[in-house]
UniProtKB/TrEMBL annotation, chain A:
It is found in: Cytoplasm; Nucleus. It comes from the Eukaryota. Belongs to the ELP6 family. The lineage of its organism: Eukaryota, Metazoa, Chordata, Craniata, Vertebrata. Keywords: Cytoplasm, Nucleus, tRNA processing. Pathway: tRNA modification; 5-methoxycarbonylmethyl-2-thiouridine-tRNA biosynthesis. This is Elongator complex protein 6. It comes from Steatornis caripensis. Pfam families: ELP6. GO terms for biological process: tRNA wobble uridine modification.
Automatic annotation (TrEMBL), chain B:
InterPro entries: Elongator_complex_protein_4 (IPR008728), P-loop_NTPase (IPR027417). The keyword Nucleus applies. It is found in: Cytoplasm; Nucleus. Component of the elongator complex which is required for multiple tRNA modifications, including mcm5U (5-methoxycarbonylmethyl uridine), mcm5s2U (5-methoxycarbonylmethyl-2-thiouridine), and ncm5U (5-carbamoylmethyl uridine). The elongator complex catalyzes the formation of carboxymethyluridine in the wobble base at position 34 in tRNAs. Pathway: tRNA modification; 5-methoxycarbonylmethyl-2-thiouridine-tRNA biosynthesis. Belongs to the ELP4 family. This is Elongator complex protein 4. It comes from Steatornis caripensis (Oilbird). Its main location: cytoplasm. The gene is Elp4. Keywords: Cytoplasm, Nucleus, tRNA processing.
Length: 250, 342
C-alpha cells in the first residue's frame, strides 16, 4: 500500500513491465488510472488479452480509467474552439505553453477518488511513459511536481500505488530526462531497472532486470536490496531466470 | 512511423524515400508528399519505374504486373486489421517475394499515377497561400503540415469517419528533410535552438494521427546536422522504426577494402513493437547498401571474397537488423517480416 514503483529501461524496451502491472492490478480488483502517452488503446488491449485481461470490459465497469494521450492530444490540437463541458483537457499544457501539469493531476485525482458506489480495492496510477511529457514541452520541474502531487494524493491520502515508466541511459545526452529519472530514483520504494545485456544482442536472453528494494527509505537503516535476473520475452509470458542460467544454456 | 536519418549528402535517403512512395503508387495506395525543398511534382516525376518481373521470372506483359499489384492490394486488404496501426509494409505474407522491384535508371511512367490519388504539400507554396494561421504552439511550418495531413485524413476518410466508404485504402505519407532549416526550425544549426520541442510535439501529434487512421509514414531527417542529441533520443522514442543511413562518400571508409563493394551502411536503431510483448529475434548482422546501375540493394555486410550470394534476394530470408546499436538488446519487433529490399 502506498508504494511508488519506478520502471526504468535502458537501451531496451521495458514496456512489458507496464503490461504486466496493468493486468496484475486489474486482476487484483484495484481501480486503475492509466495515463497511456505512447501507444494507442488497441495496442494495450490486444496485449492485455494475451495476458488474460479485457481492458474494454474493465473500462466499461469503471475499473479502468484510460487516458489515451495520442487521442487527447489530437482532440486538443484539432478540436473545436468551444470548451467541452468547461473541463480543460488533461494535456492542455501542450498548447498552453504554460508548463503546468495541474490539469493532468486533476484528472488523475478525480479518476482515482472513490465515489460512493465503488467497491474496488486500492487505487493505482500507472504512467507510460513519463519521458514523453518532457518531449511535449513540460519542464523537468513541472514533471517532478506532478509526480509529487500524485504521490501525496494517491499514496498518502488514498493509500494507493503508483507505477511509472521512464527511459534513461548512462550516456544519455538528454539532461532533463536524466534529472527527472535520478530524482525519481531517490524517491522510489521499488525500482525495476531493465537493461539490454552488456555483452550485446542475444537470442535467448533479451535483457536483464535489476530489482532494487529501497529498504534505506524506511527507518530501519538497512541497505537497499538488489537482485538481478535475466529474462526472455515470449508471446504471452516473460520468463525470468538467474544470470547465466538461461534455458538455452542448460 | 518510420524515421530515417539521412546520410550526409542526402543522396541515399532520398532514394529510400522515393522507393516508399513508388511502392505506394504500384500498390494503389494514396500518397501524400510533403517537402520544403523540392516541389512534390518534381519528386513524383523522379520516382523509379517498377521492374517488370520478366527480368527475374520470365513473365511478360502488362497483365502480369497488373495482377501482381492486385495481389498485393488484396493482401493488404486481408491484413487490413494490421494496417490500422501504422507500419511500413507490414503484411504477414509468407511468400518470399515482398514488395516490388524498381529500376532506378528509369522514371515511373505517368500512366501509373492516373489510378491513384495523391496530395502534396510544398512549404513555399503553402506559405504564400495562407500567410497567417493559428499556431498549435509549435513551429508554424510543422503546424501547417499537421493541419494539412489531418484534413486529408479526415476528408478522404482514412480514419474511418465515413462509414459509407467501401474501399479501404491506405495513405502513404512521405515527409522530406524534416527538421532542416527549410522548415523554419533551427535545431540543425544551433546548439541551443529556440524551440526544442517543436519537432517532438509535431511527431507526437503525427503519431496520434497515424494511429487512428489507415496510414503509414516515412520521414527523412538530416540527423547529422542536429546538434542537440537529446532531441534525437526523444525522437527515437516517439517513432516506431528508426533507420539510419551512413554513406561512405567523403569519409575514410570509402577507401577501406572491407567496404569496397558497398556505398554505405544501414543502421537499424529501432523496430516496431506493436500489439505484442515479444521481440522478434533474428540474426543481427551488419547491413550495407549499394547502388548498382539499376537497383538499390540492402544486404548483409560480407567480406569481399565471400560474394557468392549478394544478389538482392540475399537479405530477404529473414528480418534484417544491424549490429551496432541493437547489440544492446533492444531488438523489439512485432508481427510481420519486414523486407528491406526493393
Amino acid at each position: 500500500q502506498g508504494k511508488f514503483t519506478l520502471l526504468r529501461d535502458t537501451r531496451t524496451d521495458g514496456s512489458f513491465l507496464v503490461h504486466h502491472f496493468l493486468s496484475f492490478y486489474l486482476r487484483a480488483g484495484c481501480k486503475v488510472c492509466f495515463v497511456a502517452l505512447l501507444q494507442s488503446f488497441s495496442h494495450y488491449n490486444i496485449v492485455a488479452q494475451k495476458l488474460g485481461v479485457n481492458l474494454r470490459a474493465a473500462k466499461e465497469r469503471g475499473q479502468l480509467v484510460f487516458l489515451e494521450g495520442l487521442k487527447t492530444c489530437l482532440d486538443l490540437l484539432f478540436g473545436e474552439e468551444e470548451e467541452q463541458s468547461g473541463q480543460p483537457s488533461p494535456l492542455q499544457f501542450i498548447s498552453e505553453n504554460a508548463s503546468n501539469l495541474k490539469a493532468l493531476f486533476d484528472f488523475v485525482r478525480t479518476s482515482l477518488t472513490p465515489t460512493g458506489s465503488d467497491s474496488w480495492k486500492g487505487p493505482v496510477l500507472l504512467v507510460d511513459d513519463l519521458s514523453v511529457l518532457l518531449s511535449l514541452g513540460a519542464t523537468p520541474v513541472a514533471v517532478l511536481d506532478f509526480i509529487h502531487y500524485c504521490r501525496v494524493a494517491v499514496c498518502s491520502q488514498l493509500k494507493g500505488n503508483i507505477v511509472v515508466l521512464v527511459h534513461s541511459s548512462e550516456d544519455s545526452e538528454d539532461e532533463e530526462n536524466e534529472l527527472v529519472v535520478n530524482s525519481l530514483c531517490h524517491h522510489s520504494d521499488l525500482i525495476l531497472w531493465v537493461e539490454g545485456l552488456v555483452t550485446g544482442f542475444c537470442k535467448d536472453v533479451h535483457g536483464q532486470i535489476k530489482i532494487i528494494r529501497r529498504a534505506s527509505l524506511e527507518l530501519t537503516a538497512e541497505q537497499d536490496h538488489l537482485q538481478i535476473y535475466q529474462y526472455k520475452i515470449q508471446d504471452k509470458n516473460v520468463t525470468f531466470f538467474a544470470r547465466g542460467l538461461s534455458a538455452a544454456l542448460l | 512511423l518510420v524515421f530515417t536519418e539521412e546520410d550526409k549528402y542526402g543522396l541515399y535517403s532520398n532514394l529510400l524515400y522515393k522507393y516508399f512512395l513508388a511502392e505506394g503508387v504500384v500498390c494503389g495506395h494514396d500518397l501524400f508528399v510533403a517537402s520544403a525543398k523540392e516541389h512534390p511534382d518534381n519528386i513524383l516525376k523522379e520516382l523509379p519505374a517498377p521492374l517488370l518481373d520478366d527480368t527475374y521470372r520470365k513473365e511478360l506483359g502488362e497483365e502480369a504486373t497488373a495482377v501482381k499489384s492486385e495481389d498485393f492490394q488484396d493482401s493488404m486488404k486481408i491484413a487490413w486489421r494490421y494496417q490500422n496501426l501504422p507500419k511500413m509494409e507490414a503484411s504477414p505474407t509468407t511468400s518470399t517475394k515482398f514488395g516490388h522491384y524498381y529500376d532506378i535508371s528509369k522514371t515511373m511512367s505517368p500512366e501509373l499515377f492516373q489510378s491513384i490519388k495523391w496530395h502534396s504539400f510544398y512549404l513555399p507554396e503553402e506559405l504564400s497561400l495562407q500567410p497567417k494561421m493559428k499556431t498549435c504552439s509549435m513551429n508554424s511550418a510543422y503546424a501547417r503540415l499537421l493541419q494539412s495531413i489531418q484534413r486529408i485524413i479526415y476528408q478522404e476518410g482514412f480514419d474511418g469517419s465515413d462509414p459509407q466508404k467501401k474501399q479501404k485504402n491506405i495513405l502513404r505519407i512521405g515527409i522530406q528533410s524534416l527538421g532542416s532549416m527549410l522548415w523554419g526550425d533551427d535545431i540543425c544549426c544551433s546548439d541551443t535552438p529556440e524551440d526544442t520541442h517543436s519537432l517532438t510535439k509535431f511527431l507526437y501529434a503525427l503519431r496520434g494521427l497515424l494511429r487512428k487512421s489507415l496510414s503509414a509514414c516515412i520521414i527523412t531527417v538530416p540527423a547529422h546536422l542536429i546538434q542537440n542529441k537529446a532531441i534525437m533520443e526523444r525522437v527515437t522514442n516517439l517513432s516506431d522504426m528508426v533507420v539510419g543511413l551512413e554513406s561512405f562518400i567523403g569519409s575514410e571508409r570509402e577507401t577501406n577494402p572491407l567496404y569496397k563493394d558497398y556505398h554505405g551502411l544501414v543502421h537499424v536503431h529501432q523496430i516496431p513493437r506493436l500489439n505484442s510483448l515479444i521481440c522478434d529475434v533474428s540474426d543481427t548482422k551488419d547491413l550495407a547498401f549499394r547502388l548498382k546501375r539499376k537497383l538499390f540493394t540492402i544486404e548483409r555486410l560480407h567480406l569481399p571474397p565471400d560474394l557468392s550470394d549478394t544478389v538482392s534476394r540475399a537479405s530477404k530470408q529473414d528480418l534484417a537488423e544491424s549490429a551496432k546499436l541493437l547489440s544492446s538488446g533492444c531488438g523489439a519487433m512485432a508481427i510481420g517480416k519486414k523486407h528491406l529490399d526493393f
